[in-house]
# Entry
Amino acid sequence: MNRKKFLAVIQLLCMATVALPNAGYAADGAAASSVTASTVVNVSTTAELVSAINAASAGTTIVLADGTYTHTGSFPITDKHGTASNPITIRAANQGQVVMTGRAGFNISNSSYIVIQGMKFTGTATAVNMNSSHHIRVTRNTFALGAGNNIKWVQFSGNNSHHNRIDHNEFGPRVDLGQMIAFQSSVMSQYDVIEYNYFHDAAHQTVNGGETIRVGLSGSSMTNGYTTIQYNLFENLDSDPEIISVKSGQNTVRFNTFINNRGQVTARHGHGNSYYGNYFFRTVDKPGVGGLRIYGNDHKIYNNYFENIDSTIHIDGANYDAGPDGSNYDSSVLTRHWRVYRAQVFHNTIVNSSSGIVVGKSYTYGPVDSVVANNLVIGSGGPLYNEVKGDNIRYEGNIGFGGTLSNLPRSSSEIKEADPLLQPVNGLYRLSADSPAIDAAAGDYPVIDDMDGQLRGRADVGADELETGLVLRKPLTPAEVGPNARMAMTSRAVGTHTGNGWYSSDVSVQLGVVNAEEGAGQIEFRLGSQTSWQPLPAEAIRFTEEGEHVLRYRYAGEGVPEQEQKLGIRIDKTAPAYRLLANGQPMAEEAVYPDTSTLALKLQGEDSLSGVARQSLTVSGATYEREASVPLAGKLGEQAVHVLIEDAAGNVTEAVHWYKVIPTLETLLSVADSYIASGEVSGPLVMQTLNRLKQASHHLDKDAEAKQQAIHFLGKLIQAAQQPPQEAMISSPARQYITAYSRALIEQLTS
# Structure
């Protein structure tokens, strides 16, 4: 299988994932096999809630009535265990109508498979603390806590903490110092997922410690977290220079959107982190709006898009060197900025930046053995590629345009100066068809798709690959994250299309979910009047029959179907028919008309599916829409009517109808009379002409032998017009016409 076919198969699988739920949240074998009857417990007071938590077991759902709940401290959930199929759920009866205030929150300790759902936290203490617990889900809540003493709104801590999930929550606004989500403890909680949350409006602080998300501490930075932060929206977060501060290893920050945040995403401590598919925007005049900054070993930064960000990508300098394997350290240096080794920064797009990619700006030690490849930077000022210090930094396949290209001499194979010919499409600057970035990537880097989720073939430079497939990822909006989020679906119909709503070929339809976590749900569809939903097949849905089809589809995410959408597919593969009328009758093949007549043509196009979009007939060099009146005088011989009909689907019917115009003695008599009247035929030739025409007319309507006499007199007429002394009695135009027309009439009578 070649690379293109392999990538196509991968994309179809991405568009039609059916695994439910995400394997990352699945139970172990023993827990998954247990089945417990569900129990619903309704509570309306703080005391009832405490009692219900104490009595809860696998399968218990505690439903909180609308109202305000306060407490002197957090509600303890200790040694409570649900299962993957029967979790312990504590949820609001009506989302957002249960308010936790005061010091009320949940302290979850040594527990598993707990769900906290649908509440609003407005108190002054940590809202949810997960300590030595796993498979805890915090979903569809609002966190807008009051000012506290450097509190952490949601916290992970303790050993044996793993596979927890914070999703579809709203965090903000915040006016004080502290983190919205913090990973505490000397050992990292592992394999946690933070996704589809809306973080917004954190007020600027003058001291350190206001990160939105802090993934670890300096003391735990040498442990791996395997945390995934994805599909979140971060907006107007000004409380700390680090929006996300990663202080552990093997974490992934991907597919997030950052808008007008006064800070950066930072790999502060730890090794082997990946940052890809993120969008960074500055849309207002605000200082300090940044991109990415890294320290440590083996980080990857790719497929990110930056617009109007001045401090874009920093492979920063350091004040401590722990060595190529990061082993040269003790606890006293864990808070230092560690030297970068083997960073890979590739396939990023930076638009309207004054600095672009900066290597080794700060401190003493420059990065080592790192790669800057296939990035696209457009900006002003510069240098767009700025290496302040570094050791064995390799550049290849990069493009820069609009400012000072580089502070060091670079070959065109390292950094090419060229206008990438970007064009604005749906709010992003993308490659146009003539861009020099197309198929220009160098090297071989581990990137399968682009920032849109479209598969890469021979890779283009930058985050965008010029493709026409489904856009499966895009910048997030508030409607797609937070407690009330809904997934956006996308469709692509492939076929011959005119833009009039009809296809003239078979049609293949691809369906996808925008910004969907792979494996978290499935696409379902039904056709026409079908009432049952079907899972999307691996191959595209194909329509081959003519007519109008209705495709309904929806996304069932974690068992909750989204609102269905509808796509109409109209197919007309049949060329239109027509009738051509001549003088009120269907025009016969090889029809013959005398030149004394006028031909009345009428075109009647017919198409029972998409309908006639345009029709025309062309005759004697003139084109008419539907009807034409064509005098035949002077148009002897073979003539043609060209017919063109096109339906709304673009099917075209073209045809040519031939007819013949024949001369008549009536016309010759009329023309001769006009020449005599004008004096172009004069003298004795007048009577000779009239007599010969009279004799020809006398014999013309009789039998075949008499018709030969008519031909004889027409020949005499030609002789008279061409012999002296008659030549002086006829003008040259009259002689030419009478001679030519008489010959044509003789030929017609003979045939």
Residues 161 and 255 are 25 Å apart (CA to CA).
